[in-house]
Design goal:
The protein is α+β, with helices and mostly antiparallel strands and about 375 residues long. It has helices at about 15-25, 50-65, 75-85, 120-130, 160-175, 185-190, 190-195, 200-205, 250-270, 275, 290-305, 330-335, and strands spanning about 5, 40-45, 90-100, 110-120, 140-150, 155, 175-180, 215-220, 230-235, 240-245, 280-285, 305-315, 320-325, 345, 365-370. α3 (about 75-85) packs antiparallel against α4 (about 120-130) and α5 packs parallel to α9 (about 250-270).
């Protein structure tokens, strides 16, 4: 039975546990998988005018990346902010390049690269004011397969130029992507024709070695008029999603595949702070038998962008109940927890209990998880 903090019958081995809780209550920020707030632009000179123009363009791209919305710049508050984009910059620097830009009379001008870092606090404040969502930096990693069909045969694409287009768009949207190794193991496990046929079980099995959170399969062919037509399928724990498109060149198709992937994940993981306000969600974590395990769990949960505060409510010999004050609902929280191997769902055994009529996430029926590598308690 779980005991409240006020009860003096707490288990003896955990007394020291509470002393340490009082001494070390702070949270540690988790490492970010995506650099949300940096951007760079090519400029003709280091003049103020060039820097202002570059900052405006860079801030617009950062807002799309952070919000997960391609329409971020249409908000009146964002349009006003873009006029004074330099106010959001807290650091910038220049580096040389071998590239050129077109001068006033069409002549090539040596270009420098302007590196900009924007204030996370100011950007997130702008999102709130504009009513935009915030997509945290902890994002699903996507393994991408590209396959081309020429009519006579299918071929898996490893061409660096096409992958560069994909990577550039993924960086713009903040989608972590990875490519297969294209080695003998891939060749044997994933024949091009099987990939073209979207044989989902084979694709998942061949992709298992990469341990990605999701799989994106892009298929395309070139039409007789030179245009490209393609479709792409996203395989993820939340289900599969299919898209299609066509373009004069291949680049727009690859960019659209990344955009559709980003839009899909933003719909699952982005937080809208103005939507519901702070919610309280109860969570039971089984088999927490040491202070170190507790701190790992507390640090992880506190590092999640949608979690404002983590508070211990009660504990037993094998586990504890936490209250999470969040800026999103249970679905958002559960989707986010799937992204890291810290907690894994445990059985919600309520079929024979009156608790089945209670709201999931309440203290009467908390979400139930266990620390990875631990067995759930009965």
């Amino acid at each position: 039975m779980f005991q409240p903090f006020g009860d003096r019958t707490l288990i003896k081995p955990l007394r020291f546990f509470f002393v340490l809780l009082l001494l070390f209550g702070g949270a540690v920020q988790a490492e970010q998988k995506v650099d949300l707030y940096s951007a760079n632009e090519l400029v003709k000179s280091q003049s103020l005018a060039q820097r202002e123009a570059a900052a405006k363009h860079a801030l617009e791209r950062v807002l799309v990346r952070v919000s997960g919305s391609q329409q971020a710049a249409t908000k009146p508050q964002v349009r006003d902010a873009l006029v004074r984009a330099q106010d959001y910059v807290y650091e910038y620097s220049y580096s040389g390049t071998d590239e050129t830009l077109e001068g006033i009379e069409g002549e090539p001008v040596p270009a420098s690269r302007l590196h900009l870092k924007f204030s996370a606090a100011l950007v997130e404040q702008l999102l709130r004011e504009a009513g935009l969502t915030f997509w945290p930096a902890n994002r699903p990693e996507v393994l991408v397969w590209i396959v081309e069909n020429s009519g006579a045969e299918s071929q898996i694409v490893s061409d660096s130029e096409r992958w560069q287009t994909l990577r550039e768009q993924a960086a713009l949207r903040g989608v972590p992507i990875s490519a297969p190794l294209f080695d003998l193991e891939d060749h044997l496990a994933m024949p091009a024709q099987t990939l073209w046929q979207l044989d989902a079980p084979t694709i998942r099995e061949a992709s298992e070695r990469y341990r990605a959170d999701a799989i994106l399969v892009v298929r395309y062919s070139q039409l007789s008029d030179g245009r490209f037509r393609g479709d792409w399928q996203l395989m993820h724990s939340e289900g599969e999603a299919s898209f299609e498109g066509q373009g004069e060149t291949l680049a727009p198709l690859l960019q659209a595949a990344v955009n559709d992937t980003a839009d899909r994940f933003a719909s699952l993981y982005a937080i809208n702070p103005s939507e519901t306000g702070s919610a309280s969600i109860a969570m039971r974590v089984d088999n927490v038998t040491s202070f170190a395990t507790y701190k790992q769990i507390e640090r992880y949960l506190s590092s999640l962008a949608l979690v404002r505060r983590v508070q211990m409510h009660s504990l037993s010999e094998q586990g504890l109940i936490l209250q999470l004050f969040t800026e999103g609902d249970i679905t958002r929280l559960e989707n986010t927890l799937q992204l890291a191997q810290v907690l894994t769902p445990a059985s919600d055994s309520v079929s024979l209990s009156a608790n089945r009529y209670q709201r999931r996430g309440s203290l009467e029926r908390p979400l139930r998880y266990r620390a990875l590598g631990q067995e759930a308690s009965p």
